[in-house]
Amino acid sequence: MARITASVYTSHVPAIGAAIDMKKTGEDYWKPVFKGYEFSKEWLKNEKPDVIFLVFNDHATAFSLDFIPTFAIGTAAEYTPADEGWGPRPVPKVIGHPQLAAHIAQSVIQDDFDLTIVNKMDVDHGLTVPLSLMCGEPQAWPCPVIPFAVNVVQYPVPSGRRCYMLGQAIGRAIRSYDEDLNVQIWGTGGMSHQLQGPRAGLINREWDNAFLDQLIADPDALSKKPHIDYVREAGSEGIELVMWLIARGAMSDAAGGPKPKVAHRFYHVPASNTAVGHLILENA
Ligand code: DHB
Ligand code: FE
């Protein structure tokens, strides 16, 4: 059967993608950001996942305001990096895993979570920047990726509780797939940031670190945090953090198994207008 071996959490700041693409990673401003991912790149090479289930949000790129799926699973064979206004990022195309994605859709929908099925989608910085941070600049991404898009842009957005329970359902779905696959689940976006209005540039280090502590130790309690707390404390775009609860809900302890081990934790300010947070949890 397929196994979920680890979960990875990371911010997806578009300026990080631009820094990589424009060869600026060695500049003083960016050095500390990329240093926080040196361990992670080595770790990923050693872990050799067969599939990455990547929870991210589309930023009105693939989905316009014409139609707004709350939860959308990518079932395509491949996905092209999106043009977000200055040309597509020069990164490899993303190879999907249609069989596992279809199995997860079947299982999760029968488990009472309504998903939108997406057979064609360009993927924006929400998906490609986490891959770049974790993989560097390879010719091809190391394994197939199942993109899972969550609406955290247009209200109403899903609650942390809904996200955590959906993660549990995704965990059940993956663990019931009849092939011995090493699957990782990634939760992306965050940490505190507000990109517009009088509070633009808001950073709340204390809140971010408390979020990381609770994500590790007591995600069930964390999932009960109302969405207004994210917006008030972590800024309007801090709401992206609910996506981390999907990845966390898929870990073994959320299904009655042992607690995961913290393999790596990193926090840094600033990157563009945001705080960068990053965590790797390994299942026992
Ligand atoms: C920015 C955009 C994002 O989607 C995000 O999550 C963080 C930062 C930005 O434009 O700086
Ligand atoms: Fe974002």
From TrEMBL:
The keyword Oxidoreductase applies. InterPro entries: PCA_45_Dioxygenase_B, Xdiol_dOase_suB. Residues 8-276 form the Extradiol ring-cleavage dioxygenase class III enzyme subunit B domain. Its EC number is 1.13.11.8. Pfam families: LigB. It is an enzyme of class 1 (oxidoreductase). One of its GO terms (molecular function) is protocatechuate 4,5-dioxygenase activity. Keywords: Dioxygenase, Oxidoreductase. This is Protocatechuate 4,5-dioxygenase.
